[in-house]
Each structure stands twice: as structure tokens, then as C-alpha cells.
Input
Amino acid sequence: MSSTSTDLPCVAGLHHVTAIAGDPDRSVAFYTGLLGLRLVKRTVNFDDPTAYHLYFGDGTGAPGTLLTFFYWGKHHSDALGRIGTGAAAALTLSIPRGARTFWEDRLAAARVATRREERLGDPLLSFSDPDGIPIELAESIDDRCPWNGTDVPMSQAITGLHTAPLLVRKAEATEVMLKAGLGMTRVAAEPGRTRWAAGAARPGNFVDVVVAGADTAAAAVGIGTVHHVALRAPDGDVQERLRGRLQSCGHAVSPLRDRQYFRSIYFREPGGVLAEIATDGPGFAVDECPTRLGTTLRLPPPFETQRDRIMAALPPLILNP
Ligand code: ZN
Output
């Protein structure tokens, strides 16, 4: 049977977005205590085990709900980064319709300054996290079930990622990659921004291509910036087909990397943003009981023999969310 366009592999939405922060305790307090996400895994950066890698998400750490952070401490002399072209411009999360006022009040009580905006016709609240990472809460119709282990009412709670806003100088090459390489479709636009969806046009499936103003500098990797954006492949077979598709479109794709909770390939999209395609499985319960996610430091087998040395180099994480 001949291949048709319907046979083209397609990503299944966003998997996670990873940013760089400074202090892990402050970050845990903000994302769990204030934003009401669950800390679903505490581990180390597999490429630099002297630093924490923490994952926040819904109750199970489902793909599409995940924010992850690398922590750059004092050992990085050029620690502060800059938001700019060639990186995602914000962490954009989904909240229920009408929930903006709740978040405005809750953030004001925590002395976090917020700003009301409209985005493609929908209400949005923007603010910054303690490291200066821009955060956007976008109102939307979203049937995902949020984590219920906090004081945030379920009716107002963050349900997961909404979109990933890729800030680029020119949209065209990035849009070609989203369409031809990842199988996404264009679903909405406003001046300076086009919205693309993987499958159904709903929160968690979106990527926005945002064209930067002429005076916007290139992004500099460091604290306060988004490091990379990961898209979902349901399984390794689809991931391999996506690799082939991206390579046939001229993109250089990394070898497969085992990230313990998922398996990943990486490439740099034409606008400069580091992108990842991660499998849905095996998931966060692979090395921890689902009821105890995020409560102890988990290390993948290659690092387990060095646990004492790794733990001695890490700052203590005092919070117990
Ligand atoms: Zn990643």
C-alpha cells in the first residue's frame, strides 16, 4: 500500500518544558506551595549530576503537564540568562475559564505582581517566578484533571501546559518544521503569533511561533530562561518515525537518550530553539510508588553507585511538599 499524508508521523502534543532556576527550595515553594503543582520527581541533571533536576506536574506527572527545572547554583559564574530569540519566551500553563481572578488574588497575596493580557481572544495572566522566568496562565476549556493535593480548589487549578511560545526572528522556517517535520497544523493567528496544534486544538497540544521585535536580542542560556521544549511521542516507534521525518527535512537529530522516565531525541529547530521529542513511557512510577512521587532523591542506575558522593555535592532540599 502506498504511503499517504495520513501515514506521516505526528507528535502528540507537549511533553514537558524545562527552565533554568537558581535555588531549588525557593522553586519548590513557588511551584508547589503557590501554583499548586505536584513535585513528581527529584533527581539530578543526568548531564551534570552535581545539580538537581526537579519535575512538577499533575498527580501522576502525565506528559503535557510537566515543568522541569535545572538548578544552576554558585558554580556557574555566568549564571543569569536572558530571554530572547532562539528560545521559548515563557512557561505557559492552562487554567479553567474564569480562574484568572482567583490567580490574580492569590498571587497578589503572595506579593507577586501580575499583568492582565488577552491572547488570541482568551484572558491571560502574566507574571514572573522568583528567578525571573516569565509565566503565563491562559484561560481555556481543558478537561484534564489537576493535582488535588494542595489548597488550590480543583475548579481553579492549573491543569497542565497550555502552549510553548517559541520566540524567533522569522517564522517561516520554524513553521515549515512544525508542519512537515512534526505533523502539526496551524489553528490560529494574531499579529506576530501563529498557533499550531498537534492533533486536536486544545491546551497541551499547542506550540506558538512568536516573531520577536527587531530590537530583541538573542537568548542567552542561564537562570531565568527556558532551556528547551519537549514534544510527545506516544512510543518509541513513532519517535523513530519522527526522527526519520526530521532528518529527511534536513534537521540533525541526536542519538536516543535514556532519561529514565522517558526516552528522548533532541534537535535544534530553525529558529534556534532546542527541541526534544520524548516518549510517554515509562513514566514517573518506574522507580517510585505513585503515592510517594517526588519525596526522595531518585538516581538512575549509572549514578546509584555514586549516591553518597552525589548527595554530598547537592544542597539539602528542606521542603517536603
Ligand atoms: Zn527535556
Residues 1-5 have pLDDT under 50 and may be disordered. The first strand starts at residue 14 and ends at 21.
